[in-house]
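User: Round two. Same drill as before: sequence, then structure, for each protein.

Assistant: Same drill it is. First protein:
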Amino acid sequence: EVQLVESGGGLVQAGGSLRLSCAASGFTFDDYAIGWFRQAPGKEREGVSCISNSDGSTYYADFVKGRFTISSDNAKNTVYLQMNSLKPEDTAVYFCAAELTIPGATICNMVVTGQWYIEVWGQGTLVTVAS
């Protein structure tokens, strides 16, 4: 079964940290970029960060640069999002997603171009940052 399973969400005070995990199964991990979206109540889903599992390149939305770090453990087929200096406005459901990497084409469109070419979605994990 093709799936992404997130974990690591929870409640944290402003200024605190959380680490989200996204475990992939059922597809060839190295052929995909894995990224994180988030959706706050009443707002549209937005791309947060993405990593290419083919070359390790990483991408971040401006609003998380310097605070969030994405990484990948290809041996475990798992992507992590380390979130530091959390703010109340980071409160959202965080989803991981897989985008097929096409040679010669843009990688991590979810962050780089804002276009979504998502083939697999996770179920989401709630992050709540208290002020």
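Second protein:
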Amino acid sequence: QVQVVESGGGLVQTGGSLRLSCTASGLRFDDYAMGWFRQAPGKEREGVSCVNWSGGTTYYADSVKGRFTISRDNTKNTLYLQMNSLNPEDTAMYYCTAHRWSGCLGSWYEPKYYNYWGQGTQVTVAS
């Protein structure tokens, strides 16, 4: 049984930083591209970032480019999202997800292409 569990969310002031973590079990982690999505109240789920199986190729939404960094440690079955220079527009539930191909698709930002999802971790940025 595949389990995906996020952690690391919380309340932070504008300009602050957080690091999210995601641990996946029940799958061969390095066979999967991994992604982060977020969803704010009343909005659609939005693709934040994707990383291929090795960590060598990454993609970011324009809204987070230069501020967020995705990485993975395949020895620990763990995915990370380092978030810097946070602002209130980053407030959302953040979800970790796994895609059953080793590389990120061209449309990596579409939720429908991902196979497994975590329950999410809340990030709140106070102004």
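The two ends are 40 Å apart (CA to CA).

User: Perfect.
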